[in-house]
Amino acid sequence: MPDTTNKKKWNQYWRENVNKSVFFNTLVALARKYYFAKAFAKFIAGHYDVKGKTICEIGVGSGLTLSYLKKMGAAQCVGIDYSPEAIKFSSEQIKDCEFIIGDAFNLGRFGEKKFDLVYSLGFLEHYNKNEQKKLISEQKRLAKECVFIEVPYDIFYFRWLFALNKFFGRTLTFSDEEMFTPKTFQNLGLKGKSIPMRRTFYLTIGYFENVCEK
Q1: Which long-range contacts (C-beta less than 8 Å, at least 24 apart) are formed by 189-197?
Q2: What DSSP assignment string belongs to 156-208?
Q3: Residues of the chain whose pLDDT is less than 70?
Q4: Assigned CATH topology for domain 4-208
């Protein structure tokens, strides 16, 4: 279970995004809005036909990637986050998706195989290995066809960013513990392909219960 201290930090992060009170967060928000959200949505849609599908994003944050998937033809898009501030932020900005406060460790309210596709973006790396296994298990339970997990990739020119942010004390959203490799995914019990996302410095793993690649 995520602790209340961490939740307070994320609530503060999303308040800062609204108020633009922290320059670093403002830069991240601009990059997310004008590049990364669309890039992630295009990558997912390139490996999984989202048209007519039900999709759920865990740790939805701004909701921008989910909104792009809706515009690409998804039938239903639901975003879940345990930060009320994140849900408030996404709900006010995006009207074509549904946003719900929920605990990623316990999503029993949605039942088994509720969504065709379940994915998380920049989410899994904020938890320890035991917590990651629990989160993955819950996402698998929710997914009817496919799970995508996107995390920062262990490459040289991303390491300096992690080191720089850790030096300045920004370890909530960026630190050297966030880097992943295909071996890490294997150790977490994930199947599928580990694919570096070009020009995004992220690694994506698809857990396929059924074959969902084009």
Answers
A1: 189/133, 189/136, 190/136, 190/149, 195/47, 196/153, 196/155, 197/39, 197/40, 197/43, 197/150, 197/153
A2: HHHHHHHHHHHHTT-TTT--GGG-B-HHHHHHTT--S-EEEETTTTEEEEEEE
A3: 1-6, 11, 13-32, 34, 165, 169-178, 199, 201-203, 205-214
A4: Rossmann fold (3.40.50)
Residue matched to tokens 């307070």: 8
Tokens 């496919």 correspond to: 146
Contact 185, 205 (CB under 8 A): yes
- For the chain, domain boundaries: 4-208
Rounded to whole angstroms, how far apart are CA atoms 3 and 122? 18
Residue 16 CB contacts under 8 Å (≥ 6 apart), including other chains: 22, 25
Q: How far is CA 166 from the centre of its chain?
A: 21
